[in-house]
Amino acid sequence: EVQHHIRAIIRHLVARYRIAGIHLDYVRYPSSEFCYCSGCLSRFLTSLGGRAKGIPPSEAPTRFSSEWADWRREQVSSLVRAIRSALDTSRKGILLTAAVWADRQRAMNDKLQDWPRWCREGWLDLLVPMNYTTDEADFARLARDIREQAGTTPVVMGIGAWRLKPEEINKRIRAVRDGGFAGFSLFSYGGITNDGTTEKNLS
C-alpha cells in the first residue's frame, strides 16, 4: 500500500508539474528490526513457496534469515526501480537522485538499502551519500568505497556540517574536490546557521 501510494504521488507530480527531478530521502528501513507486520510476513511466506509450508508467519524470518534480509532489500529496490521506470516513461528528462547511507555494509545489512545495485542498474542519475562521520580518516575511507561502488553514477558527497567546525568542513570540501566527485552537499543549512539566525559559518 505504501509503495502504491508513493508511486501515485510520483505520477501526479510528473503529470501536473514541470519538475527537474525527484530526490529520495529515507528510502530505506529504519533498521533491520523492521518490518514484522502481518502484511510483510504474509508476503514473505508467499515468496518462499513450498519451503515455508506449515511454518507460522512469526517464525519465518528466523528460519529463513538470509532470505528475509534479501526480501526486504528487494522491497526498497523495487520501489526505486518503479520510480525510475515512471520517470523514463514520462520522457521529460526528470532526474532521480537518492540520499543513501554512506557505510555500504551498514546500508545493506541494517538499512536494507542496496544502493550499489541501484548504481549498477542505472536507476539513479545522482547519488548523495550521507558521509556524516566526524572522523577524517573514516570520511576518506568511506569516500573511496563510495567512488568504487558508484561506478559511473555521479556522486555528490554529503558532509555532516552540523557536527563539524568550519575548518573541518573546509577540509571535507577540499577532499571531495580533490577526489573528483561531482560536488558536495552540506547538511544542513539550519544546522550551520543556527536555523537561519547567523551566517558566520558560511563566510
Short synopsis of the structure:
This protein has helices at 2-16, 38-48, 60-63, 65-90, 104-109, 115-120, 136-150, 166-178, 189-192; strands at residues 21-24, 95-101, 126-131, 156-159, 183-186. With 203 residues, the protein is of the alpha/beta class.
List the helices and strands and how they pair.
Blueprint lengths: L1 H15 L4 E4 L13 H11 L11 H4 L1 H26 L4 E7 L2 H6 L5 H6 L5 E6 L4 H15 L5 E4 L6 H13 L4 E4 L2 H4 L11
Parallel strand pairs: 1-2, 2-3, 3-4, 4-5
Helix pairs in contact: 1-4, 7-8
The amount of beta strand, in percent, is 5-15%
Helix/strand order, N-terminal first: HEHHHEHHEHEHEH
Instruction: Kindly state the percentage of residues in helix.
Output: 40-55%
What shape does the CA trace take? Answer: globular
* Number of beta strands: 5
Helix/strand-derived category reads alpha/beta
How can the largest sheet be summarized? 5 strands, parallel
Strand order of the largest sheet: 1-2-3-4-5
Summed over residues and divided by their number, the pLDDT gives a mean of: 94
Q: Please count the helical segments.
A: 9
The separation of the N and C termini measures 46 Å
Low-confidence stretches: none
What value does the Rg take, in angstroms?
19 Å
